[in-house]
Design a protein that fits this description.
0% strand; 76% helix; Tetracycline Repressor, domain 2; mainly alpha; 10 helices; 2 domains; elongated; homotetramer; DNA-binding
Chain lengths: 205, 205, 205, 205
DNA sequence: GATGAATGAGCGTTCATTCAT
DNA sequence: AATGAATGAACGCTCATTCAT
């Protein structure tokens, strides 16, 4: 009982941190902002976390491990490479749909922060890239994708596309609603699949 | 003469700032780091610039306006939408090729920094997005791209892909060399063009 | 019975405090260090003690009152001033022999801490100095010590010498073993006695 | 000129630190206390010093090196061991006479602080002890002191006595005036010399 | 008695910016 | 133009102490 409550409080502080990080960015977020968002004294933050940085690290790793797990499960349970890619895109988009603040922090403060947290979490990030690259290789082996594009580059294209949609929603460049979320998922996978389809005849020029 | 020297000094300070920002990120960069990189007293930085932020703002706007100009010129001088898109991709990639530090700062510290400088420069960033969207619309009107995808989304895909390649080079996830630069340019444009080609028959599954 | 247990717990906490204070010094010691050394929750410390300071105060006063009592008893039961001085030296050295941690705290954190606890406990400390001064006066009256040195100064010399031996052991400047303890006791008393012997003829130069 | 002024400012801050440390002790001294004592913004303290600790370290080492130099010089220029010991005692006492705050800090915050700065500066402290021990050995070789007392122990007695006088002045246990300073110097050396004189016949009992 | 969650005052340190020279 | 001394707001973090359970 008591420990459950403690865990709740810890979680509520981490949620407060997520909200504050999402709103103001990590650097502009003060520990006291987080504490008052959570409705606690700032000292309590340090009862549950070692530092402000640790909160972001944990926040990221918690979520990223879900993505890795989801992709691993998709790899095992789904049939086609395309379904697997679609599952990966769906997981990311749906994560944003349900918890935009978490994903905003994950994307903006970590995966795209080449000088700070991105560097720290590079191993985890790379694991996701590798998983998508593996999906691509499966597609290549099935003859569904062209072989002359490296799976690494294809994975880059995939994440670039998905993250940019999130970026667009975050920056409010494009509307963020249910329809758009679903459209984005399909568009990304469809475009990648068409764009990297085996080449029979030249397209465009 | 004297003013030329002054302009040189100013430029050398901005170059030092670029280097330092690229290495450590904006937040971790101290004005004194920039000053010592430039070989001047840190007070002198404030003779030429109002603030640390101003340096980044100027750095970004200088470069971004070149991109906007390049795209505008491409729009006027080049024939096909595909060539125009290719010119945009080439400009960005070649910018990185020649001045990776500038582009690292532009991408990492501004266009992807949704909570700080990205927000400030949103109008300029949007202008580039709109220009690419316009290229897409031209392609759509010529029947080279499917009409049921919004040009905005297509533009997002384009920038997502290009920036992710830069990200890959910055993070050292993929090798950064002449071949790769050229391959990336082509791959992005080709994939977008194929991926968004008018739909005749289903692809993939 | 219950109260005995309580008293035991209280004592074990004070012992833990002694150990921690001796190891890290009062300022570097955290209440939680003491609690975990004692194997209790740190809140419990405040059930038995008002504050961290109180623990040191009590620790010191407990021990110092034993010294005062020992010297008072020596004054009453022993014959010669020299025996009394020897008893005082022996008590201090043997205290260190048996409980080096307690004496380390007493000396380092209190009697030599002129800006904090030393000031607070000055009355008790002075009482010990006065007692030794009284022994000296007795020796002077018996003609065993020179009269032209104030008993206060002689007392200072005595404590300076004894404490410095403790210091030497604490700092590990000199070996701390049974032999040394006994040698130190004798050396201090002997040297003081010889050094302050009535002057018949010049010594040294 | 400019650098002279800068050096002056640095010195005035260190002097302010000395005064504040002497008054309140190192731990109770705030950097802002030092800054306002020096009449500067607290940020300036960090322009000249790395940390609060560095100020105490420098303060101590500056003074202690003077003591070591004085003793080395005494060793070279003076004739008799007794004169050398007297010079050592005189240097310490006169240091206190002229700059009681410096010496208070040196003694209270360093040489007697077994858990913090004393430990850090043990090598320097030991060097002084060794020098006095060397004086004692010289006296022993000249037959002026008993051989059966280790020079280390004798050195301990010497410093114990001298420091305890400083302690007495610091604690205001004994009056601190010119007469007393001179009396103390003589008393310490005289007592040590008599107390450790070669033994012909038993003294005291 | 006992726990440990919760509080919040307090401090060392950093660093962008200003300004006298 | 150029220097670097000087300022001071700001913040992360610690930890003694309190208190609900």
């Amino acid at each position: 009982m008591a420990s459950e409550k403690a865990a709740d409080k810890r979680r509520s502080i981490l949620e407060a941190a997520t909200k504050v990080f999402a709103e103001k960015g990590f650097h502009a977020s003060r520990v006291s902002d987080i504490a008052s968002e959570a409705g606690v004294a700032h000292g309590l933050v340090y009862h549950y976390f070692d530092s402000k940085e640790q909160m972001l690290n944990e926040l990221f790793s918690d979520r990223w491990s879900l993505l890795l797990a989801a992709m691993a499960e998709a790899d095992e349970t789904l049939e086609t490479p395309r379904e697997k890619l679609a599952a990966a895109a769906a997981f990311i988009v749906d994560s944003y749909r349900h918890q935009p603040e978490v994903m905003k922090v994950v994307i903006v403060e970590v995966t795209r922060a080449a000088n700070s947290f991105g560097r720290i979490h590079l191993p985890e990030i790379t694991r996701a890239y590798d998983q998508v690259a593996s999906f691509v290789e499966q597609a290549q082996q099935k003859g569904e994708m062209r072989n002359d594009v490296s799976s690494t580059d294809a994975s880059l294209l995939f994440f670039g596309a998905v993250e940019q949609f999130l970026s667009g929603w975050i920056f409010e460049l494009v509307p963020a609603n249910e329809e758009e979320f679903d459209r984005a998922k399909e568009l990304v996978v469809d475009t990648i699949y068409r764009g990297l389809a085996p080449i029979s005849e030249p397209v465009g020029d």
